[in-house]
From TrEMBL:
Keyword Nuclease: no
PANTHER family given in the database record: ARGINASE/AGMATINASE (PTHR11358), GUANIDINO ACID HYDROLASE, MITOCHONDRIAL (PTHR11358:SF26)
Xref: Pfam families: Arginase
Protein name per the record: Agmatinase
Record text on cofactor binding: Binds 2 manganese ions per subunit.
Cofactor(s) in the UniProt record: Mn(2+)
EC main group: hydrolase
Binding site for Mn(2+): 112, 135, 137, 139, 216, 218
EC number: 3.5.3.11
Protein family: Belongs to the arginase family. Agmatinase subfamily.
Entry-linked SUPFAM superfamilies: Arginase/deacetylase
Catalytically driven reaction(s): agmatine + H2O = urea + putrescine
This protein's UniProt keywords: Hydrolase, Manganese, Metal-binding, Polyamine biosynthesis, Putrescine biosynthesis, Spermidine biosynthesis
Length: 292
């Protein structure tokens, strides 16, 4: 797949449709083949793009605007419906190509399993990679009902690949007891319930390191993001999530890639979730990818 042929449909606001001149590649991973509760996140990337037209191009938080960053919206990777392994292979191949061109990959899911092949690609380029993970769920299962390819397993897979001491999870409020016990046993960092304050304490430890950031929209309380497949009460506010994104932006952490996953527009007729996700993507672009 050539990058200049990858896109069909709408683009995220202010996307520059010239791959060669862009420093960042925005792309969709429309997969929800392995979800354990409600499907629909495969429609997330398209709707995030569509509602982005209502965004201000200027970030009052960062005093930057989208006109200042060249990014290319590559559209959605054409994943084969119902085939998890082939879909994951295609995502990894796509991100391999983005990284080979020296671009910053910013992905939109899709279920959280789509982060796994991206992390594999990132680790090949950055062997000292660390991961910042914001989520309601641990995602540390080895399998779900006997199936290892599940959206409840990507962080376990990532921890086993790069070392659990290099994975930092925040906002966690749901998971099996065995998952929490495993994390404690192997030395993985889990901050329960909150994000911003524990993140501030961890960031100095990651200064100078290449870091991949993965955000599951359900880290937000359902009052702020009802449009997701597995809602979980007791989450953070959108204000806290934005503050956390900006905390990373102002730190010495080298964010080398990122994603936002699990937006399922069908469960939110108000489109609050998609609009929030669109704003988060803007802040990720201007906060983390701005200098790439």
């Amino acid at each position: 797949m050539r990058f200049d042929e990858a896109y069909s449909g709408n683009v995220f606001i202010k996307s520059h449709q010239n791959f060669e001149e862009s420093s960042v590649v925005l792309y969709g991973m429309p997969m929800d083949w392995t979800v354990s509760f409600r499907p629909g996140s495969r429609f997330g990337p398209t709707r995030i793009r569509e509602v982005s037209i209502g965004l201000e191009e200027y970030s009052a938080y960062l005093d930057r605007e989208l006109e200042e960053i060249n990014y290319f919206d590559a559209g959605d990777i054409p994943l084969p419906f119902g085939n998890p392994q082939k879909s994951l292979d295609m995502i990894e191949e796509f991100v391999d190509k983005v990284l080979a061109e020296g671009k910053y990959p910013l992905g939109m899911g899709g279920e959280h399993l789509v982060s796994w092949p991206v992390i594999k690609a990132m680790y090949k380029k950055y062997p000292d990679l660390a991961i910042i993970h914001m989520d309601a769920h641990t995602d540390l299962r080895e399998h779900y009902e006997g199936e290892p390819l599940s959206h409840s397993t990507p962080i376990r897979k990532a921890a086993e690949l790069i070392g659990p001491e290099n994975v930092f999870s925040f906002g966690i409020r749901s998971g099996m007891k065995e998952e929490f016990e495993w994390a404690k046993q192997v030395g993985m960092h889990i901050s329960k319930f909150d994000v911003h304050q524990p993140l501030k304490e961890v960031l100095p430890k990651l200064a100078g390191r290449p870091v991949y950031v993965t955000i599951d929209i359900d880290v937000l309380d359902p009052a702020h993001a009802p449009g997701t497949g597995t809602v979980d009460a007791g989450g953070i506010t959108s204000k806290e999530l934005l503050a956390s994104i900006h905390e990373i932006a102002h730190s010495d952490v080298n964010v080398v890639g990122s994603d936002l996953v699990e937006v399922a527009p069908i469960y939110d007729p108000s489109e609050q979730t998609a609009n929030t996700a669109s704003k988060i993507i803007r802040e990720m672009l201007l906060g983390w990818a701005f200098k790439k």
